[in-house]
Amino acid sequence: xxxxxxxxxxxxxxxxxxxxxxxxxxxxxxxxxxxxxxxxxxxxxxxxxxxxxxxxxxxxxxxxxxxxxxxxxxxxxxxxxxxxxxxxxxxxxxxxxxxxxxxxxxxxxxxxxxxxxxxxxxxxxxxxxxxxxxxxxxxxxxxxxxxxxxxxxxxxxxxxxxxxxxxxxxxxxxxxxxxxxxxxxxxxxxxxxxxxxxxxxxxxxxxxxxxxxxxxxxxxxxxxxxxxxxxxxxxxxxxxxxxxxxxxxxxxxxxxxxxxxxxxxxxxxxxxxxxxxxxxxxxxxxxxxxxxxxxxxxxxxxxxxxxxxxxxxxxxxxxxxxxxxxxxxxxxxxxxxxxxxxxxxxxxxxxxxxxxxxxxxxxxxxxxxxxxxxxxx
Length: 377
Description:
Blueprint: H1 8-13, E1 16-21, H2 25-41, E2 46-51, H3 63-67, H4 70-76, E3 83-85, H5 91-104, E4 108-111, H6 117-127, E5 132-137, H7 145-151, E6 156-159, H8 171-183, H9 200-213, E7 221-225, H10 237-248, E8 257-261, H11 267-277, E9 282-285, H12 293-298, E10 303-307, H13 310-317, E11 322-326, E12 341-345, H14 358-367, H15 369-376
Helix pairs in contact: 2-8, 2-13, 6-7, 10-14
């Protein structure tokens, strides 16, 4: 049977390690802390990261968008990550990347892939035919021989957390538990808080952008994000525009500026719809140049309102109060900063975020102390 940890002697003797993950921004917001802890515990161990693109396709028209995936900008700025494999978005590039990884002869490979676990077990062993390989597993039906054989390729396992425990622990605690199990690293709760080191040029960019929008240094700025890749976690642009209109009509809110987050592919349509509103204090935002545009803009705001995406976690990372609109299906992903975060939960167990009304958001904001303090200032 595979073991549940990597032998300490092997960690001391190895010069590098490959981490495999199907990373989204929210994942890395918390996983970054664990990777930093690994680098601090084993400074001789060079960390390489394989970003497996789940949207991999033969459709060449999608490659430019996939090539510019924002997570790559963030990974490239991490001082404790030496190399990233960021060309797995097409079948041909995937094979080329596999060849480059095999040439590295990694002594250690760890797969953190939670989706398609057997496939990631096979990939990890393919990338390192003779190294020590660890990966995610879950219970196997006694008739599922193919999955059983895939897991046999692993030298160490990371058991998936049971569904019944989801919500009992925060995702940052789960990640820290994985690294403690595998590497013997104890990551204190305070060290699990997300962080993002924003390069100076993007702070300068956000200042210039606010100046172009006519946002004065004393004016309040609220960031609103209703977009998620999953429709059931999204809040429509109509809801956001209605929320901004209603809030700006309230006493004390008349001069508040709203930054509305829009994905690049939806920007043209959003511009047309915003033009019809004709509000000088509504501004469309899209991180279309670099990932760090997003945290740099969030850091300039006094409040963030967001559905369940990386935006709400990045708001915690830059220490801005956040109101999160969430479904009940993944409570382990609630914002970590409880003192500066609040959540409006969808009422029904599997309902979508569209069930949350603008009235609910307005009432919640009116009763939330950080907002009361903001407008009392």
